[in-house]
Design a protein that fits this description.
The chain has about 375 residues and is an alpha+beta fold. The chain has twelve helices and 18 strands. Helix 2 (about 30-40) crosses helix 3 and helix 5 (about 150-160) packs across helix 6. The mean pLDDT is about 90.
Length: about 375
């Protein structure tokens, strides 16, 4: 779950990470009230989960109530890269001497947590990595050891933070790691982490992604879901407990297992097509799950063909076949299906599909993943 900036700052505050005082607002009057509480001057910031807010006019400085009314009125309802602003965050403006970058995430290849620090903040870390890779300090952290004050201090020194920022930055690094670890984050990022003329260091921005697999430990996360940005396809899939990510192609993908689903996307791309989604029905999927997956795919009007790639282990071929037959009885599918069915009870599954009398214009079976991908792409084109 990706949090909005203001939600990320609220999450940081639970771990005593200093952030600017402020409040969220859905209306102009609420923005004025938040500004009055924070104290002028303030910054009015669009709350959307996309970069480039400042360049789009979604971040404005206000010195008084009239300017807050003007900026909040202009920003609320603004479209920023396809994201409509429904809420703003109004916070006290900060004087800035220097800007830094810090983040924690998981390095899957190393099987350790990864801390990244840079003395260049306020810009995309990808830009820094490309233009000045030596400016980034990367430090792997064994989850059994955690991050100590000594290690954090050494990282700040290696990142060439000024002496007067070392203590504050070290303190925030340790607290941010605790937020990332105990708070079950996939990503905890501050960009920029600022040094004020007074010598204080605090988070001016917050980017937090929570690990959905840990939601059972965090009933308090429910409060974050109200404004979570999710397109209609993803919302429908979530209601059916399906692992779905919307993409921009024209070939709908259904596979059992995340690895196979990713491989299926790669093969479709390899033969000249583009997937419209990632959809993993998981192991042991039954007919209802398959029918639900097809309903979600069918909801997407950009889908021109559907590629079902099943290698049965726990998932059984006859259940997949029954799901397809059931889905065709429930929904008038707009796009033809191409299926590659192999593994457990695959022959029985293929027999069920053959006996169902489904016309070839609606369903084609191919013996290999590559053949099925080529057929699906051809139909989509």
């Amino acid at each position: 779950m990706d949090l909005f900036e203001y939600q990320g700052k609220q999450y940081f505050a639970r771990y005593d990470i200093p952030v600017s005082p402020g409040g969220p607002a859905d209306t102009v009057d609420e923005a004025v009230a938040a500004a009055d509480a924070a104290g002028y001057p303030v910054v009015v910031k669009a709350q959307v989960q996309v970069g480039g807010r400042g360049k789009a006019g979604g971040i404005k400085l206000a010195d008084n109530e009239a300017e807050v009314r003007e900026h909040a009125g202009n920003i609320l309802g603004m479209d920023i890269k396809g994201h409509v602003v429904r809420r703003v965050w109004v916070e006290a403006a900060s004087d800035i001497d220097e800007e830094y970058y810090v983040s924690f995430t998981l390095d899957r290849s190393a099987k350790q947590h990864l801390m990244m620090l840079s003395a260049e903040g306020g810009v995309e870390i990808e830009t820094v990595a490309e233009e000045n890779p030596d400016a980034i300090v990367r430090l792997h952290i064994d989850p059994l050891d955690g991050l100590t004050d000594d290690v954090a201090r050494r990282a700040c020194i290696d990142a060439e933070r000024p002496e007067r920022a070392i203590d504050g930055a070290t303190d925030i690094l340790v607290k941010l790691y605790r937020c990332y670890d105990e708070g079950d984050c996939d990503l905890a990022e501050i960009n920029p982490l600022i040094l004020k003329p007074t010598g204080e260091v605090h988070a001016l921005d917050a980017k937090v992604t929570l690990d959905g697999s840990a939601e059972f430990r965090h009933p308090e996360w429910e409060e974050f879901k109200g404004l979570t940005e999710m397109d209609e396809r993803e919302q429908m899939a979530a209601e059916k407990d399906l692992q779905y990510i919307g993409l921009d192609g024209s070939v709908g993908i259904i596979a059992n297992g995340a690895g196979l689903a990713m491989s299926t996307l790669d093969v479709v791309n390899q033969v000249g097509g583009a997937a419209s989604n990632f959809l993993d029905i998981g192991g042991g999927a039954d007919a209802d799950v398959m029918a639900g997956a097809l309903e979600v795919i069918n909801f997407d009007e950009t889908v021109k063909s559907i590629f079902i790639n099943i290698f049965g282990g726990i998932t059984r071929g006859e259940e997949v076949a029954n799901g397809i037959v059931e889905a065709l009885s429930r929904v008038d599918l707009r796009a033809p299906i191409v299926i590659r069915l192999d593994g457990t009870n695959a022959e029985e599954g293929r027999r069920i599909l053959a006996d169902a009398g489904i016309p070839e214009s609606q369903l084609r079976s191919e013996p290999t993943m590559l053949d099925a991908a080529r057929t699906a792409v051809s139909l989509a084109n």
